[in-house]
Amino acid sequence: MKVWAVSNQKGGVGKTTTAVSLAGLLANRGSRVLLVDMDPHGSMTAYFGFDPESVSPGVYELFRDDFDAARLPELPRDTRVDGISLLPACTALATLDRQLGARHGKGLVLHRAVRQLADRFDVVCIDCPPMLGVLMINALAACDELLVPVQTEFLALKGLERMIRTLDMVQKSRARELPYRIVPTLFDRRTRASVDTLRELRSRYPDRVWDGAIPVDTQFREASRLGVPLTVLHPWSRGSQAYRKLLQNLLDDGDGL
Amino acid sequence: MKVWAVSNQKGGVGKTTTAVSLAGLLANRGSRVLLVDMDPHGSMTAYFGFDPESVSPGVYELFRDDFDAARLPELPRDTRVDGISLLPACTALATLDRQLGARHGKGLVLHRAVRQLADRFDVVCIDCPPMLGVLMINALAACDELLVPVQTEFLALKGLERMIRTLDMVQKSRARELPYRIVPTLFDRRTRASVDTLRELRSRYPDRVWDGAIPVDTQFREASRLGVPLTVLHPWSRGSQAYRKLLQNLLDDGDGL
Ligand SMILES: Nc1ncnc2c1ncn2[C@@H]1O[C@H](COP(=O)(O)OP(=O)(O)OP(=O)(O)O)[C@@H](O)[C@H]1O
Ligand SMILES: Nc1ncnc2c1ncn2[C@@H]1O[C@H](COP(=O)(O)OP(=O)(O)OP(=O)(O)O)[C@@H](O)[C@H]1O
Ligand SMILES: [Mg+2]
Ligand SMILES: [Mg+2]
Q1: Residue (of B128, B147, B152, B164) closest to B213 by Cα position
Q2: pLDDT of residue B257 exceeding 90
Q3: Hey, is A155 helix, strand or coil?
């Protein structure tokens, strides 16, 4: 089983879109995929038609002190796409940091839960909230590899430096190395700022940046209205073709599925 | 003095862009503007050339138990734009929720600080992080009026419902009413999903939605590279013209400046 996380403290860079698009491609190939939504705003949960204000049980229950681990197999739920299951988020997740306060020991909750599901899924893909806290820390501790979507615009480069420093910090508390891959998103080849930023990304992080880029594709908005991954709805759109190349790159580097 | 906040738990909808653009217009008119960055990722702080990892003192100091209120006048700092001062964010703000834990009484820290600066500024505009927590709560408690940027795409409508329920919750703990205005952003009239969503927004929230829309304008990316508001750099670009209409609407409804 492979465990990937998609994270960036900057909002609106395509984290949810990346997780959902990759899941669509993997399901198409016959893989069994578990998507995990760690964002209290529940974009991915809502994408598949669930209501983050009422859906239960989900990720939140994992963090309760009285959670019965025997109930874990009931948590992943089927979605409208064959091959994709979802561990949903709920809005109450936003209170977790305050509830935990100074208590430690809650950084490996997701890591332990995901390992127990290893026989049921081929790939787990974790979507992160746009803020550093116990939810993002859990995702970074649970994953084998991290994808960092970065919008191809200038300010995003500065934000990336901060994200990488956060990763260095988290790296120290992990037993294993945390390989990460930078994924340029919302690339618009007609905009000079976008082209310059992509070139700058490649020259600053040559070994970390994927050699492709996800283009701006208005069909993503159409797909999100229908609650189906673009890679399932329009497998040959520009956006889908780019995500297919990214997936190929991820699988080539690893040991395949 | 008017106090506005810009907030939405959804990431990447144009919160920072809205705060910065309005500030540019107000400064052009001769108003004294204070921008407050409550986002630990520090997008607005970085926009003006400060480093959120090292800038101090700023918003974070306000929350320390040992903060000396006499030092408050030193906190706002000049920016490269005449008429705009900034109360910067730092990355340590991300730890605030955990530090506070179950402690109460920190919801009015910003409200008190802003009132003490009333003689120095005409307008205060607060940029929020994309997550509900003590920082967003402080911004909602401190403002007289709230702007909620909403991207014109379908899933954003669902996210807006959740945001409005959060506002209803916060409303109960405020002594004063919290008027809010929905600002359609990233509007692309060539995309069907965008046009349909805008129509849906207007029919669902007729009294809350501003009657304009901020169009997609690639010059925003250019402006952010230079760290200058688009409304200062290219005052007659499509984006600037739209924000000018929004500002006019805000000032007409209030009692002017
Ligand atoms: N390549 C793309 N082309 C066009 N639109 C895109 C693309 N990728 C994402 N989008 C759109 O941009 C918006 C933001 O994407 P998304 O919600 O995936 O970002 P996010 O990083 O998950 O945001 P958040 O920080 O709120 O979690 C969505 O409306 C999505 O449809
Ligand atoms: N009207 C617009 N046209 C084109 N690009 C825009 C527009 N408004 C914002 N952007 C771009 O979209 C991106 C997101 O905007 P911004 O950072 O202001 O959103 P945000 O809601 O503050 O994000 P976060 O949730 O991370 O705080 C930025 O790259 C910005 O330049
Ligand atoms: Mg998301
Ligand atoms: Mg912002």
Answers
A1: B152
A2: no
A3: helix
